[in-house]
Amino acid sequence: MAAEEATGTDRGLVRRSDRHQVVVIGSGFGGLFGTKSLAHADADVTMIAKTTHHLFQPLLYQVATGILSEGEIAPPTREVLAGQKNAQVLLGEVTTIDLDKRLVTSHVLGRELVTPYDSLIVAAGAGQSYFGNDHFAEFAPGMKSIDDALELRGRIFGAFEMAELGAARGENVDHLLTFVVVGAGPTGVEMAGQIAELAHRTLKKDFRSINSRTARVILVDAAPQVLPPFGQKLGRWTKKKLEDLGVEVLLGAMVTDVDERGLVLKYKDGSEQRVDSVTKVWAAGVQANPLGKQLAEQTGAPQDRAGRISVNPDLTLPGHPEVFVVGDMISLDNLPGVAQVAIQGAKYAAKEIEGRLAGKAPQPPFKYFDKGSMAIVSRFKAVAMVGKLRVTGVLAWLMWLVVHLFYLTGFKNRVTAVLRWFVSFIGRGRSERTSTEQQIFARAALKRLDRGATSLVSEPGVYDAERRRAELEAQAAEEAHLSDDNLRGVKVGG
Ligand SMILES: Cc1cc2nc3c(=O)[nH]c(=O)nc-3n(C[C@H](O)[C@H](O)[C@H](O)COP(=O)(O)OP(=O)(O)OC[C@H]3O[C@@H](n4cnc5c(N)ncnc54)[C@H](O)[C@@H]3O)c2cc1C
Question: Which of 72, 164, 190, 354 is catalytic?
Fold first, then answer.
């Protein structure tokens, strides 16, 4: 059924006009760049995403380690798109995509919305994979969202606080001062490097009962080298620089169990090692968004082990030329899960939609242009790979700085990021060390509620304003009575 026929039912369908309707799922690199690229298309664009921000994931580790604030890497999508008249932003987690009826169903806090489309761009990204051990997540948060980064920030700085308290009472605090990062890809390397810098530089004068420089930072990976996609030479260089920083690099070590107090590693020779560590970071493995499974079931397109869906060379789904899938969700020509694949794919999809509306011939198949990869090890040290060029050290670090500034969304964010990098890399300060109990524990608490956050709000349509007003008035009268009649508080004297 075409999108036009889907309007006008009682299921809250929203069709903005008679123009071609493009729905974009996700506000990450694919979603945002896809939407922006449609600015001049003769179409209405509706971006549906489960967060109100665009997230610059490559800098999440800097939020987790107190260098940047979350706002600097996660600008409000609504603000970014404020000037794009044909774009609308809707908050909601997409739960169903009905390819036959061309409908996208999304939910937020118990509210359901069904949005029709004529063209669809799916850019819902990927989540963390615990390789079938999802219960590890409670003790070793991943690094995928602002929630993850703030929770980790709280856990990392909180571990030093708890160690200070324990040491002041003469207790052994080794488990509190041991930090384990699982996964020696770019994120794991960056995270381990930053925790080491925190312990050895930033915090070295801040405590009285502990010496933060004695903290152990351990980077673990089942692979035989760090940064496998960067090749052996850069991998060796990175390992050496991490070790110079004081990071212990354990390779060929598979994590077989994780609990509150530590984790168990198993080596190739079958030997096992338990590491006592309260703070663990999971930076290993990705799993494509579960929406990929729905699309695979409806089209017969195969999925790979990481849940990525095979797409046609023009990024469309088999039998559905109106549906494009881009970014971390796709399996095509061994393309890596990096920002450029999502950005270029989304721009390609947008151009194809715009071209069709203008009656143009289809584009040639999608071709990814590899602009290179880089990872930062510590301040002034990075590795970069651009074509055949391999760069290490300060030069690579400067390249990293320029590229990240270029892609960070918003001029304001670029200026403040530069200032904070100046403070953290030239000095030793970290201006974003604030963390609250809520950030550390609220997510686990919400999970224990039947329906998560939805349990905390009233059902749509059942809010009884009159009854609530009466309750509030009665409560106010009771409080006033307690004060007027001196019944409140503890009476002093006779
Ligand atoms: C910690 C980290 C560091 C990285 N570093 C680099 C790097 O240095 N260089 C590099 O090139 N790449 C890096 N990457 C990879 C890069 O960020 C991804 O490849 C890129 O974000 C993929 O873009 P995407 O649009 O496919 O997905 P994402 O950017 O992940 O966006 C997915 C979007 O979909 C939304 N969403 C998900 N599910 C739903 C749903 N059901 N309903 C509605 N909305 C939904 C999300 O909220 C999000 O807005 C890094 C990734 C991580 C996690």
Answer: 190
